[in-house]
Amino acid sequence: MKRIEPVPLLLAILAVAAIMAIGVFIAEQSLIGIAASTVILIAAMGAGFAHKKRTR
């Protein structure tokens, strides 16, 4: 069984939370919330891919 890496796990949880927040802000019709969640999602995904590239 592989060992669970904490940094990628936290980045993945952050990305999923940002996706869920986008859905909530769409329902609330908050453009600022949608934009902020999208920026957080892009940052989390970018950091995750960069971390994966560094660890290979």
How does this model look, in words?
The protein is built from 2 helices and no strands. With 56 residues, the chain is mainly α. It has one domain (4-53). Keywords: Membrane, Transmembrane, Transmembrane helix. The chain crosses the membrane at residues 7-26, 32-50.
Summarize the structure.
This protein is mainly α. About 85% of the residues lie in helices and about 0% in strands.
Write the element-wise H/E pattern from the N-terminal end onward: HH
Give the count of structural domains.
Answer: 1
What class do helices, strands and sheet pairing give?
Answer: mainly alpha
Overall spatial form: elongated
Number of strands: 0
- Radius of gyration computed on alpha carbons: 13 Å
Multimeric organization: single chain
Taken as a percent bin, the fraction of beta residues is under 5%
Number of helices: 2
Q: Give helix % range.
A: over 70%
* Sheet having the most strands: none
Low-confidence stretches: none
Calculate the terminal CA-CA distance, rounded to whole Å: 19 Å
Mean pLDDT: 95
Protein name: DUF5325 family protein
Keywords: Membrane, Transmembrane, Transmembrane helix
InterPro entries: DUF5325 (IPR035211)
Transmembrane segments: 7-26, 32-50
